[in-house]
Amino acid sequence: MTANREDAAQSVVTAIREAIVRGDFVPNQRLVEADLSEQFAASRASVRSALLELANDGLVERVQNRGARVRAVSLDEAIEISEVRMVVEGLCAAKAAEQVTAAEVRELKAIGKDMRKAVSGGDVLGYSQLNQRLHRRVREISGQHTASGVLERLRAQSVRHQFKLAMHPGRPAVSLPEHLAIIDAICAHDAAAAEAAARAHLRSVITALREVDQAGSATR
């Protein structure tokens, strides 16, 4: 495959992944190559290559004789993903505490300040975006590139559950002190405390996932 074709296929991968993350494509929705080719102004070959890559990432599944569709992630799988994240994000938080620079300390503290403002102002969407930014920066500061790649794939797979969790009433007020604890430990260069705070946050996520699912079942 030439460089141009690789770039074209990668741009389609990015576009489809972002559409799934935004919820434009919903779980179990069929992904028809011809439609995607038209929607993203890409060749059928680029679309086919993109779907194969997304299948490898766990976002898309191939169904025999029926093409591709958005893979639905069950609650049980979302919890398993969170359990893996608990271990890997704990590692990243610990490494970030060891690696963080003075400039990055100021950046993390600024994110924490913005998160406080978002919660006090009821800005749920803004808080969700800051949440994602914080987790991404911790991964980047840690320098753990393999772990970062794993976490990005896991986050994409469970994005629908994460969105429901982020929009759940009262959730930001619960998760804010958990995130601030991670920030404080990293900024204090306390690797053990940073790992413990990250693990505690993910345990809270698992509990909340179950609660949100039960609340949804009660209203159905």
UniProtKB/TrEMBL annotation:
Domain spans labelled HTH gntR-type: 6-73
Ligase found in the keyword field = no
> Could you tell me the keywords of this UniProt record?
DNA-binding, Transcription, Transcription regulation
Q: Name one Pfam family in it.
A: GntR
Q: Determine if Iron-sulfur is one of this entry's keywords.
A: no
In terms of InterPro entries, this protein maps to: GntR_C, TF_FadR/GntR_C, Tscrpt_reg_HTH_GntR, WH-like_DNA-bd_sf, WH_DNA-bd_sf
A single MF term (Gene Ontology):
DNA binding
- What is the protein name for this chain? DNA-binding GntR family transcriptional regulator
Q: Which organism is it from?
A: Amycolatopsis magusensis
